[in-house]
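Homework help board

Subject: predicted structure for assignment chain

Our instructor gave us this sequence and asked us to write out the predicted structure in token form, then describe one feature. I got the tokens but I'm not sure how to describe them. Can anyone check?
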Amino acid sequence: MHRNRWFIGAALVALLAMLAALGLGQEEDAAVATPPQPRVAPPYPEDIPSTGRVREFELVAAPTALPLLDGRSLEVWAYNGQVPGPTLRATHGDTVRVRFTNKLPQPTTIHWHGIRLPNGMDGVPGVTQPPIPPGGTFVYEFKVKDAGTYWFHPHLRGSEQVERGLFGVLIVEDAKPGPFSRELVWVLDDWRLDAGGQIDGRFNTRHDLAHDGRWGQVSTVNGAVQPEVPLQPGERVRLRMVNVANGRVFAPSFEGLDASVIAIDGLATDRPLPASRLELAPGNRVDLDFTVPQALSNPRLEVMDHFTRRPFPLATLVVSGEVVRPPEVAAVAPPPSPDLSPARALQPAETFRLNARRGGPFGIEWTINDEAFHHEGEHASAHHKVYRLPAHQWATLRFVNESSRMHPMHVHGQFFRVVARNGASVDEGHWRDTVLIRPRETVDVAMFPQDVGAWMLHCHIQEHAEAGMMTLVDVHTEGSH
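My token output:
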């Protein structure tokens, strides 16, 4: 019987609360390495004024069959009968209300990847909500505090449910329109198919667990193989890209276009960044800004993926028609660069060593600090360490990859800055919620936690997370437990 790899039993939460109330269990909580700091101005707003608008959506997850990939019928699990799921849109400061119904044969939840929201809306079963059973419903409601590109997906048996097609995009728009003629949304994914051309039903194999997760033989943009995307000369385009794959890293190249990166993982970059070395690990988002040249020697521009040894085409931009004048709208000014000097002066509050070992229900466990996130039936072990960070203070976290595989590490409910790689200081010029840690690499990130609660920290290679590479970070205020 397949174990529920994402469910953290209510017993664990209750036990932690009881121990905190009794002042016990402190050995299980990692001590913060630095003394408390005075509360300082946050590097991005803790909250923003509400627009007073409520954007209401209905989402239904159910099995269906769709003409995807090469146009043949593919049996999938889908939100609202489409893959990718619907693109939900709201404006900065709106409240989003999603009435969700589960018509799958399994329990599920929805996690709003990259969104800062109340902990109870984060979609982690057993930590923030019970799993939603087949036939069950749940209402997610939260104010969107950050403009940008985000996405949503299950946080329960993700290696299967995401692979079968359960993912969609949430776009939070700026209050003022940007200087763009057109917006494109590209959901990047890959699919492992069996001999009959259907999704391979063998999940969490030893091969995938021993490597960088499940990589498929067919890569798609919005569910289509190598689509042709029509553009007109002169158009100024905002391209929002989301990597929803279980394990594949994408590195799209836009040769022939003067493209700039204007946002990563939702938030705007400090300045336009070159798009010459793009890299999207599972969970990452990248927003590009480019203007289609008015004169091209070749009106067909292939977007190639260069991450693997053999580059392959992702899509083709086909330029034709009359010249378009971009709208005369002032660009939105990027936010000021944060002062990272207080964070750089700190020793790591926590160090997370990433590795693997034999054992567990799949034969291989992926660990954080020699601990795999175990489940006993439907309940997590109450002995799992919970890492604690104070709110409204800078803290640095260190990831030490002791393994020979990649790990895109994702933190719920927080943004962070990469400040060092292998001991060398780094200024990437942008925030993240997911960072790719390469084999044998050490990466330091700086965080300024603001939203209290128990937040997941995990590898976003779905198979690695299923096999144990996840933990909890408890963001608390002074005096709380």
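Reply (TA_rk): Your tokens look well-formed. For the description, you could write something like this. Residues 10-22 form the longest helix (13 residues). That's the kind of observation they're looking for.
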